[in-house]
Every structure is written in C-alpha cells, then in structure tokens.
Write a structure and sequence with these properties.
single chain; 337 residues; alpha/beta; Spore Coat Polysaccharide Biosynthesis Protein SpsA, Chain A; 9-stranded mixed beta sheet; GlycoTrfase_DXD_sugar-bd_CS; transmembrane helix; alpha-1,6-mannosyltransferase activity
C-alpha cells in the first residue's frame, strides 16, 4: 500500500504533547560529555574522544522557558560528505564558533547530531512514514540530507537550529520582543531582499528566507509542508535525471530548489499567506525594518540573521548592528558533492 506524503510528521500514536508545545527530550544512545565553554577545551575533547555525537546539558538552575513556546534547545548537524567506518564524523575544526552559542545561552541544551544520531532519530520518530525514511536515506548530497534533518528535528523537538558556520551575537532570550513572546511559535530571517537591485547569484526569488538559523516550537505546521515539499521535489529530481535518487549528482540550484533556501522560501511564504491572507507577493515583505509577527511566525529583517552581506541593505561596514542576532559565515561545506 502506498504511503501518502500528506501524513503528519508526528506519529498519530504519540501523545498530544507536541501540540501543547512540550519538547520531548531526544536521548541519543551513546556517550554524553560535559563541555567547558573554552573553545580550546571543546575542540580538544572532540578531537581526542572520537565520539559520534555530543550533547551539553546545562545545570538545572533554570528550566523556565525564556522564549515561551520555543524550547531552550540548540541543534547543530555535522554529517560527513563521504562516510567511512574508520573515520570520525565530527570535524573538530568546524566547531570553532559553537562556543559563542554556549556562552550566550548557558541554560540551553545543546546537541550536535552526526550521521548515526541522525539515522537513529529518523528511525525512532518516523517509522510511520517510510517515505521520509527512504528519502532521507537516499539523499545524494550531504547538504540536502542536513537540510531535511533540521526540519525534522525542529518539527519533533523544537528549539533553535543553527549551522556550524554561524556566530551567536545576542542571547536567544532576546530574539523575541517581550510584547509578542507568548504569541511567537517560529522565527525566520530574511536572507536576501532584491528591492530595486539586480538579481544576486543563483537566488531565484526577489526575497528569500534563510535556513542556516531557524527557531520554532515543536509541531509547527511549516515543517509538515516543508518535508512534503522535499519528498515531492526529490522524486521529480530523480525523474528528471533518470536515475535513482541516491545516484543523482545535483547542481547547486537543484539543492536550493529541492531542500534548501529556495524551497524553504516557497513553503514559509505559503504558511505566511495562510496566516495573513493580505500577503499576496514576496515583495509585500520587502524593505522590512523591524521584526514583524505574522500570525505566530516572527520574520526578522535582513540584519537579524543576515548581516555582513553585500546586498539587500545588509550592514556590511565591519560593524555589528544592534538588531543583529546571529551571523552566517558562508563556508558552504556541503558544496562540491
């Protein structure tokens, strides 16, 4: 019997805790280690330990949510381009910016998910969705697999996902203005806003949302839409290449349009239109100057997650603007697969 891609991500047999905004803690099988905030100690530990995953747990001094519906959890993903049994999947050098997230958010749980952790998570939570397991397992590009995994993690667990090549600039508890904290269930940032300028690189939209940093409450419907988009897009991609999905050698634009920021923009925009029917075009969100709540989704202007870029009126003069929350360094470790 075929499995519909419209089935919910959360197993119907699971408790309704996700709808109540409760994040069930995913407990990786393996070794958990205490981390020192010193980046030198962090890198030394990972280099010497050879662990397949790594989790930092704060003290229990404060477990009261600082961002209302969004759990106090930070997720990062590190998947190997070409995994081999005798090679550790964690590259210590790629974690040099992680200390910024730990230092600014000391009461947050932190989880670094590697290949085994991702596989375990997918099989644990999506046994009722063999289409998800099949698509994830056969992703031909490490970037595409990382994209899909971040949406699934946030759908089930909630929290903040951020790429390893990002730097935290402000504590997460300050990301949401206090007067809308109890109404916000997702945070997305603008990556690109063409305005009156020319098209930029291979960005297909006049305005695009980034997915190097996303925050959300568990069970947010935007992730249902995104995962179903990925399943359908990757099926079409395999058909166009006339090979099984795991044999596709995608171009950069194909990655962006199937799992990456171009696809994410389509889905986020669809969700925003459902929440606010007056939004007709992406350009209705252009020239944004301050964080704006649409329904339960908080949209950040360009400097929120996208400072330091040479377009979109992003602050790029060497200074850090007061509304910048995180910075992306654009190391693009997924490219060239």
């Amino acid at each position: 019997m075929a499995v519909s891609s419209e089935l919910p991500l959360v197993n119907p047999a699971s408790p309704a805790q996700y709808a109540r905004g409760y994040a069930r803690r995913y407990r990786r099988t393996g070794i958990a280690a205490f981390v020192f905030l010193s980046v030198a100690a962090l890198l030394f530990f990972l280099h010497r330990s050879g662990l397949e995953s790594w989790r930092f747990r704060p003290s229990a001094e404060s477990l009261k949510p600082a961002v209302a519906h969004i759990p106090e959890t930070i997720w990062q993903i590190m998947l190997p381009k070409k995994p081999t049994p005798d090679q550790p999947t964690i590259e210590a050098g790629r974690l040099e910016n992680t200390a910024s997230w730990l230092a600014l958010n000391p009461n947050y749980f932190y989880t670094l998910v590697d290949q085994k952790g991702g596989d375990d998570f997918i099989h644990q939570h999506f046994s009722h969705r063999p289409d998800i397991i099949e698509t994830y397992t056969n992703m031909p590009n490490v970037g595409m697999k990382s994209d899909m995994l971040r949406y699934l993690l946030l759908s089930i667990e909630g929290g903040v996902y951020t790429d390893t090549d990002t730097i935290a600039l402000q504590p997460i508890e300050k990301w949401i203005p206090s007067h809308i904290r109890n109404r916000t269930r997702a945070i997305v940032g603008i990556e690109y806003d063409r305005r009156e300028g020319p098209a930029w690189a291979d960005i297909p939209h006049v305005l695009q949302f980034c997915q190097w940093t996303i925050a959300a409450a568990p069970g947010h419907p935007v992730f249902d839409k995104m995962v179903n988009r990925i399943i359908n897009s990757t099926k079409l991609l395999a058909e166009e290449h006339k090979v099984p999905l795991n044999q596709v050698k995608p171009e950069s634009i194909e990655v962006m349009n199937s799992t990456g920021p171009a696809a994410w923009t389509d889905v986020v925009f669809e969700q925003l239109q459902e929440l606010e029917p007056w939004i007709k075009e992406l350009t209705d969100l252009s020239y944004m100057k301050e964080p704006t709540l649409y329904g339960d989704m908080l949209v950040l202007p360009i400097d929120g997650f996208g400072m330091g870029q040479p377009h979109s009126d992003s602050t790029n003069d060497g200074s850090i603007p007061p509304d910048a929350l995180a910075r992306h360094l654009f190391k693009g470790t997924w490219r060239g697969n």
